[in-house]
Amino acid sequence: MKAYLRAVRALVRKDALLERRSLETLAATVAFALLLAAMFHFGFDIQGAESRRFFPGALWIALLFAGTLGLAKSAAADESSGTSRGLLLAPVDRSALYVGKFIYHFGFMATVELVVVPLFLAAFSFGSVARPGLFVLGLFLGTWGFVAIGTLLAGAAGEMRGGLIAPVVLFPLLVPVALGGVAVTGAAASSAGAVEPQTAAWIRLLVVYDVLFTAVPALFYDYIAEG
In the prediction, which pLDDT does 124 show? Predict the structure, then answer.
């Protein structure tokens, strides 16, 4: 177990150090998300109560599209440098490769959100959300699901390597994440009080989705990466 954790930690540290040297992928991802925020702000005259209705959808559109760009650039960099092939030859459990990439990508997306979410709140004239805890939970569960699927496709063989993560494959799998993320963050932004049954159902769906699409790729990553 200690060897497994050391391998995961080494993989996360390797990716983090490579990104910190240039910040190219992070800068491109944040810039794209902020461009979408500016387009939503200036392209649509959304004011008052309407802002709370459109805010969750606009936020998740920006996060999913910008996150796809970030994961694609990360996968392309690994392929062009030969890192992805080299890691498959490493004497470690293949699931550690997936777990390490998953943790790195989750941290990457969390960093993007730390910059993008406050600016989206400002663009939509929010002082603060009504239920911050529920809002953070919605972001956490939605990001988890997105990263789990994105990491799986970024590490898969065939057309997923050496290029962009195909949206035609990624986005249909993200429908529960998008719907659940919008529902939970929207409920957190719109009103205070107890969690409604419908919102609680979306939270349960996201939890099941996240666990399923994290455990299955980790267990079968050996076959996925070789496929």
Answer: 79
Count of domains for the chain: 1
Query: Looking at residues 61-86, what average pLDDT do you find?
Result: 77
pLDDT of residue 83: 62
pLDDT above 50: residue 50: yes
Tell me the mean pLDDT in the region 103-113: 95
Q: Contact at 8 Å (CB) between 76 and 163?
A: yes
Supply φ then ψ for residue 47, to 5 degrees. -140, 165
Helix (H, G, I), strand (E, B) or coil at 211: helix
Work out whether the CA dihedral 67, 196, 54, 136 comes out positive or negative: negative
Q: Please compute, for residue 134, the number of CA atoms within 13 A of its CA located in the half-sphere on the CB side.
A: 25
Quote the pTM value. Answer: 0.87
Domain that holds residue 186: 2-226
Q: Please state whether 23 falls in left (phi above 0), alpha (psi between -120 and 50) or beta.
A: left
**Using CA atoms, how far apart are residues 215 and 197, in angstroms rounded to an integer?**
27
**Residue pair 152/224 in contact by the 8 Å Cβ criterion:** yes
Q: Which among 13, 116, 101, 23 has a CA at the least distance from the CA of 62?
A: 116
